[in-house]
Amino acid sequence: QVQLVESGGGLVQAGGSLRLSCAASGRTFSTYIMGWFHQAPGQEREFVAAIIWSGSVTYYADSVKGRFTISRDNAKNSVYLQMNNLKPDDTAVYYCAAASSRMLGLHKEASSYDYWGQGTQVTVSS
User: Fold this and answer.
1) Distances from the Cα of 58 to the Cαs of 20, 48, 50, in angstroms?
2) Which one of 9, 24, 31, 84 is separated from 120 by 20 to 30 angstroms, measured CA to CA?
């Protein structure tokens, strides 16, 4: 069982930056693929970024490549999402999620993730 708690959301102007954090409980954190998804009102939950268990490989949605960076610290049971050059279209609730390493290859699918945080709101004003 893994419990996830996100923090770091807020209101920022376009072009600004935010850093989201996700703190995980459980002794097996270092074995999971960790992902970030976002969901805007009336829309499906969408993949943003993922990082494998060792942190050596990362994946990004095309819409955030070059602007967002995912990282993890297994010693702190934490995963982060640094978001730079934010745009109004980035406005959404951001969720942290954990998936078994078996899901590598399907890590862009929300259904691959077993555990989810409660979400944190990110609002980007124009």
Assistant:
1) 16, 11, 6
2) 31
- Cα angle at 58 between 118 and 54, to 5 degrees? 85
CA dihedral 94, 61, 14, 20 (to 10 degrees): 40
Rounded to an integer, what distance in angstroms lies between the CA atom of residue 26 and that of residue 19?
23
Q: How far apart are CA 122 and CA 81, in angstroms?
A: 12
Report DSSP state, residue 108.
Answer: T
How many other C-beta atoms are found inside a 10 Å radius of the C-beta of residue 24? 23
The per-residue pLDDT for 62 is: 98
> Rounded distance, CA 104 to CA 86, Å?
28
Write down the H helix ranges in 9-104. none
**pLDDT tens, per residue, the chain with 126 residues:** 899 999 999 999 999 999 999 999 987 899 999 999 999 999 999 999 999 999 999 999 999 999 999 999 999 999 999 999 999 999 999 999 999 989 999 999 999 999 999 999 999 999
